[in-house]
Design brief:
single chain; about 450 residues; alpha/beta; Rossmann fold; Nucleotidyltransferase, domain 5; 2 domains; eight-stranded mixed beta sheet; six-stranded mixed beta sheet; 15 helices; 16 strands; about 35% helix
């Protein structure tokens, strides 16, 4: 993993490395494979096909002029190697990553501007990492840090405990001896009012996103955290709005998610049956089950076969859990007035989840795509409070726009916070808790009646 400042020389370095790997003998590479039936292959993946052509492709053609045979349309270069065979250099854009699935005899991949690659870890694990199973090849992850999509920061964190086969390097723009010192000094002066940008772009330092609710390092280690558990189990069910997408079942023991299941196109009856089966199988009481009660979910949560299940709706009012610091003079209160400073239940759950994750009080055993999607979704949440005294986070619509899909996987974590918030209520507040639950149940009974009435019209 190579973290470098702008014009630090990372592209020139990778071009030299690619040319070397493509032309020397396989024996010098010390790979597990020395015979390549389809020819040795080296890949260079830029953020876009246009960048690949304008920057890397031109540099490779200049470096291998008179040696390699370029294919301008395919952005491929055939070069002879010391084994008397041919190697192929592939240059492409991240948007075409699916085209590389199943490619054989790959000995190296360079990922350029890694922090701009969306869904990076999912594609890395599914498409690119398996290419090295029979070659023992390797990869370089290079770029200048970006706080909005910190892939390199996560790589550096994960490399710490992976042994000698994993290394991290860091150098700044100033470390390049070929850059004009006068120009570097002038640039630093121009950044005087934006030191964070200077640290990120020139010094290649990781800069925290000031408004981020979830600390990225804490978010990544959730999946290796160990927490104390009391044995209480919960089931969270996220139902697609129209029933045509995937339904997610998230299983929890206290604040540790121990399992996650996903089903395509389950109808209302199928979801109800699955909930009942999981409840019996994992011994989860209905009172510890929450269902996303929007669209199809409303019919699930209000079904008589699931009496006691909590219908979760993010637009509900936040649960009042805090004792008001404001008292009217000369007034005796039968019970302490409760307040909340959250705009609604969803925002209360987002901030509660952020607090727990940032303090390493949540753990998860899920892996693969589930893990990657949860990290990607939660990493974009910002404190979006408007100064009206009500705390609010990035809206779901904005999260969808940023990541390009609905944040269904992290929604189950937000819903799990409902039980945590209710659990924080003091015994003397039980009357208030009962009122909230009854109010929710009444709303779902009303919804069910309206649905039945409309369907009979």
């Amino acid at each position: 993993m190579i973290r470098a400042g702008r014009k630090g020389g990372k592209t020139a370095l990778e071009v030299e490395k690619i040319c070397f790997l493509a032309t020397v003998s396989a024996e010098k590479l010390k790979l597990t494979k020395i015979l390549f039936p389809t020819g040795r292959k080296v890949l260079y993946i830029a953020p876009t096909q246009a960048q690949a052509r304008n920057i890397v492709w031109q540099a490779l053609k200049n470096r291998l002029h008179g040696i390699g045979t370029p294919n301008e349309q395919m952005l491929q270069m055939k070069v002879p190697n010391e084994d008397g065979a041919e190697s192929t250099i592939y240059v492409g854009g991240w948007e075409n990553r699916e085209n590389y699935r199943g490619l054989t005899d790959v000995i190296h991949i360079t990922f350029d501007e890694t922090d701009t690659l969306r869904d990076f870890f999912i594609a890395w694990l599914e498409i690119f990492r398996p290419m090295f199973l029979d070659t023992g090849g390797g990869a370089d992850f290079v770029g200048t840090p970006k706080k909005e999509n910190p892939n390199m920061r996560r790589l550096e964190k994960e490399f710490e405990n992976k042994g000698e086969s994993f290394s991290c390097f860091h150098f700044t723009s100033k470390d390049n001896p070929h850059l004009d010192r006068v120009e570097l000094d002038a640039l630093e002066a121009e950044y005087v009012n934006d030191r964070q940008a200077y640290r990120q772009e020139i010094l290649a330092e990781y800069v925290d996103n000031a408004g981020a609710l979830f600390h990225y390092d804490a978010l990544v280690v959730v999946f290796t955290n160990t927490i104390t558990k009391k044995g209480e189990k919960y089931l969270i069910v996220d139902v697609a709005d129209d029933g045509s997408d995937k339904t997610i079942f998230s299983f929890w023991e206290d604040l540790e998610e121990y399992r996650r299941e996903e089903f395509d196109r389950l109808n209302t009856e199928g979801i109800i049956n699955q909930i009942r089966e999981y409840s019996a199988q994992d011994q989860i009481p209905f009172s510890h089950i929450a269902v996303d009660a929007i669209g199809v979910g409303a019919g699930v949560a209000s079904n008589s076969r699931l009496d006691g299940v909590v219908g979760y709706k993010s637009s509900y009012s936040a649960i009042k859990t805090d004792i008001s610091i404001v008292r009217l003079p000369n007034v005796s209160y039968v019970k302490e007035p409760l307040v909340t400073d959250f705009k609604n239940l969803r925002n209360q759950c987002v901030f509660t989840l952020a607090e727990l994750i940032n303090n390493h009080k949540i753990a998860s055993k899920v892996t693969g795509q589930f893990k990657e999607k949860i990290i990607e979704e939660l990493a974009v949440y910002q404190d979006a409070s408007a100064g009206d005294g009500k705390r609010q986070a990035t809206s779901k619509e904005d999260v969808k726009e940023i990541i390009g899909r609905s944040p269904d996987h992290s929604d189950t974590w937000l819903m799990r916070m409902y039980f945590h918030v209710m659990g924080r209520m003091l015994p003397q507040q039980s009357e208030e808790a009962s009122r909230v639950i009854l109010q929710q149940q009444e709303r779902f009974r009303t919804n069910k009646t309206n649905i039945l009435h409309n369907s009979n019209r």
